[in-house]
Specification:
The chain is α+β, with helices and mostly antiparallel strands. The protein has a domain at 7-74: Orthogonal Bundle (Arc Repressor Mutant, subunit A), CATH 1.10.10.10. Helices cover 63% and strands 13% of the residues. The protein has five helices and three strands. Strands 1-3-2 form a three-stranded antiparallel beta sheet. A hairpin with a 2-residue loop joins strand 2 and strand 3. Helix 2 (14-25) crosses helix 4. The radius of gyration is 21 Å and the shape is elongated. The termini are far apart. This is Metalloregulator ArsR/SmtB family transcription factor. It comes from Chitinophaga horti. Residues 1-90 form the HTH arsR-type domain. InterPro entries: ArsR-like_HTH, HTH_ArsR_DNA-bd_dom, WH-like_DNA-bd_sf, WH_DNA-bd_sf. It holds the Pfam family HTH_5.
């Protein structure tokens, strides 16, 4: 059974978020990425694989090296979701505030 990954799974892990931030600055090979983390190169490679499957990075082979490059357009899905939630909750909090003001004024 194949696991379907999405951008939310990618950003759920702090190590993957850190890798995304690093690659947003410049492309790096997997060894350069691994140097920044207290885990094995194999563990970093698994994080890179998840990011690649989610479409947040692309991995290009150059000789024996694998260079990772950020492709952050997939984060637009997260931005849209956050905007929707913000709009929803802003409306709910405004309605709650109005209700509380009415009850406060009714008690006067």
């Amino acid at each position: 059974m194949e696991v379907r990954r999405d951008v939310f799974q990618a950003i759920a892990d702090p190590t993957r978020r850190d890798i995304i931030l690093m690659l947003a600055e410049r492309p790096l090979n997997v060894n350069e990425i691994a140097e920044h983390f207290p885990v094995s190169r194999q563990a970093v490679s698994l994080h890179v694989k998840v990011l690649e499957e989610c479409g947040l990075i692309i991995v290009k082979k150059q000789g024996r090296e694998r260079f990772c490059e950020a492709q952050l357009t997939q984060l637009d899905e997260v931005v849209a979701w956050i905007a929707h939630c913000r709009q929803f909750w802003t409306g709910k909090f405004q309605a709650l505030d109005q209700y509380l003001q009415k009850t406060k004024n009714a008690k006067k």
